[in-house]
């Protein structure tokens, strides 16, 4: 029964993350069109879009620190309430000023949400299971991102924006109920594993030199994710332009390329998470990150739909190789600084990479053509991987850290079809 309750707890969090990501993914797909309906043009659209990312960048460390003080459960609940409330308010807005304020509040909500969720899951599993569980959990994000444009398009065609924002509100409420269900299903004896308010960074037996080495690893991870996020935003933003303008692909073909990359990444997360629990994680991060960056360099050379599909699949595969390992390394290094605070800094770096990558890609496209944007993304990604490899050279042994006791059975979470597909012989 305990193992069943633990799986129900994780699956509740899985549904919560999927519903939240799907709802906002649907809105993001058509948000620019929505703004134009209010008369927004040019700079106004840019402000409305950028204030969301700016809020996540500015409030990331602050909300992460707040999560350390309030506790993970309270932080997740507050963020879900904020996101659900702002989503409902979209149904009543009448001007652009209100939209900009709501976007900022949603950015603040996500700045609190992600560090608390990752910290909660990381605390509740043992070191040897962490990559598997975090990789499995990230499937909820990638499947939602991959399917959001499809669901959003269907909803918009049927009901227009009168259906988009009620869908967002409904999915936010579903996420809230899924979280409450997850907390309710958690066995009483494991409730103490929620991070207590005011908990200090975990104490360890490390000497100062090893602690300094740990900070170098965390710095390397920040550089790595900055390079990866620059590449991701260039790939998502400029690939459709390249495919339509130069290869003359249809919108459907372009959508297939983008969706296949995301779906392949999602499929790789669980098996690569299991692998990352058995082999050195740094090697997977370096191999996956370097391969993705190299593939970016080949994008301008593609000549057909088949070739770009192969490149997209390759990018999806190697993104899945690196993701679970980097997530586990991030959590294990962040406990030294206060988990919420460190994860908040990480998410700030992630969003800063999105902003800088978008600006750099636009500048490169303006000066040297769209191909240069992909060359720039590849070079930045390779440099980030090299710096990560150098900084994490003296990676400390993680078993010296005093982690929370794992919940029995949590490593076997996940949909049954995934378990049969990837681990047919598992117990």
From TrEMBL:
Q: Which terms are listed as keywords in the entry?
A: Cell membrane, Membrane, Transmembrane, Transmembrane helix, Transport
Q: Where in the cell is it found?
A: Cell membrane
The protein's GO terms of the molecular function aspect are: transmembrane transporter activity
Which InterPro entries does its entry note? MFS (IPR011701), MFS_dom (IPR020846), MFS_trans_sf (IPR036259), MFS_Transporters (IPR050171), Tet-R_TetA/multi-R_MdtG-like (IPR001958)
- Predominant place of localization: membrane
Record's superkingdom? Bacteria
Question: What membrane topology term does the record carry?
Answer: Multi-pass membrane protein
Which organism does this record belong to? Desulfopila aestuarii DSM 18488
Among PANTHER family, the record links this protein to:
RESISTANCE PROTEIN MDTM, PUTATIVE-RELATED-RELATED
Q: What is this protein called?
A: Predicted arabinose efflux permease, MFS family
Q: Per its UniProt record, what Pfam families does this chain match?
A: MFS_1
Q: Which SUPFAM superfamilies match?
A: MFS general substrate transporter (SSF103473)
What are the TM regions of this chain, as residue ranges?
12-34, 40-59, 80-102, 133-155, 167-186, 221-243, 249-269, 281-299, 305-325, 337-360, 372-391
